[in-house]
Amino acid sequence: MTQADKEKQKLIARIRRIRGQVDAIERSLSSGDDCADVLMLLANIRGGINSLMAEVLEDHIRHHMKAPDKEGTLPVDLAEDLIDLVRAYLK
Predict the structure, then answer these.
(1) How many domains does the chain have?
(2) What would the pLDDT profile of 53-70 be if each residue is shown by its tens digit?
(3) How far is the C-alpha of 76 from the C-alpha of 12, rounded, in Å?
(4) Which segments does the entry list as coiled coil (predicted)?
């Protein structure tokens, strides 16, 4: 299995966890659980989605947005700064 396949499997596993959390909210609402419990479940999903989004954006920046500078080297500092900014925004 290639590194790309392993990364794809990790992302799919995250989606499955998020799906499980959404199912838990449905069960919680159906059973009439306390609003605070439902809100906590929603916050967990939001965190999972934000984390997934950050991961996909980071991958996109690293693999599709880097362009060589005049010397033919990649502007790693700029890409890393952008990744840090995205991660901070999505927290």
Answers:
(1) 1
(2) 888 888 877 777 666 666
(3) 28
(4) 1-28
**Does the model's pTM come out above 0.90?**
no
CATH number, residue 58: 1.20.58.1000
Q: Which residues contact 82 (CB under 8 A, 6 or more apart)?
A: 61, 65
3-state secondary structure of 30: helix
- Select from 69, 3, 66 the least CA-distant residue to 82: 66
Report the interhelical angle of 3-30 vs 35-64 (nearest 10°).
160
pLDDT 10s digits, 14-55: 999 999 999 999 999 999 999 999 999 999 999 999 889 888
